[in-house]
Amino acid sequence: MESESSSESSLEKSMENVLHLQNSDNPGLILVIAPLNGTNYLPWSRAMKIALCAKDKIGFVTGEIKKPSKNSPMFKKWRRVDSTFWESNGPLLYNIKREISLFTQGNMPLMVYFTKLKKLWDEVQCLRPFLVCTCGNCTCGASKAIADFDEDEKLIQFLMGLGDHYDHVRNQMLLIDPLPSASKAYSMALRVEKKKDV
Q1: How many CB atoms lie within 10 A of CB 55?
Q2: 144 near 170, Cβ under 8 Å?
Q3: How far does CA 184 lie from the centroid of its chain?
Q4: pLDDT tens figures, 46-103
Q5: In sequence order, which residues have a C-beta less than 8 Å from that of residue 9 and are 6 or more positions away?
Q6: Over the range 68-81, which residues count as b (16 or more CB within 10 Å of their CB) and which as e?
Q7: 36 and 132 fall within a common domain
């Protein structure tokens, strides 16, 4: 009983340390010099992780620091720290999704088109919260359904942006059941392109 009480006390102290804000911590604080602009995710992410680790706030991003219940004495402190360091990804997510919806192959080689589109998908994946099944080891099939839906979206985006000279390939891919992944569709289109070049 006594060890349980002391472990709760040390956990509470640890939480208090993480929830402590320095005088320099404020909502206008710039943690990294170069803002995320849609093309610099990897260096920005690394710099942000270093900055949050230095401030002992990385646990808010990784999920290690759990949101206390609303009736907990730590809730107000947690909310204050969370609101100091959290900024909505909404505007950036909107811009990237809009760019994806307007993105077409145009005069780009197929390989360049797919690589740029994949980069945009990766950026969206980093900004969007990852949906997970709440049943545990996912016996209900929700995780697979979410992944399949996401893959179908990517396929449709890829096919919509393909040049008109890929109409025949596009139509063939849409008739496949189940739909192929975007990567598989890309490799199929690439094979057709290479056959035309020969």
Answers
A1: 19
A2: no
A3: 22
A4: 888 888 888 787 887 777 778 888 888 888 887 777 776 666 667 778 888 999 999 9
A5: none
A6: beeeeeeeebbeeb
A7: no
Instruction: Give yes or no: residues 95 and 31 share one domain.
Output: no
What residue type is assigned to position 138 of the chain? Answer: C
Task: Place 1 in a pLDDT band, splitting at 50, 70 and 90.
Answer: very low
Domain that holds residue 74: 2-85
| Chain center to CA of 48 | 15
Question: Both 190 and 107 in a single domain?
Answer: yes
Helices 110-127 and 90-102: crossing angle, nearest 10°?
A: 160
Q: Given 85, 105, 125, which residue is the final one in a domain? A: 85
188 and 128 in one domain? yes
pLDDT tens digit string along 29-42? Answer: 667 777 777 677 78
pLDDT single digits (tens) 4-14: 555 455 556 56
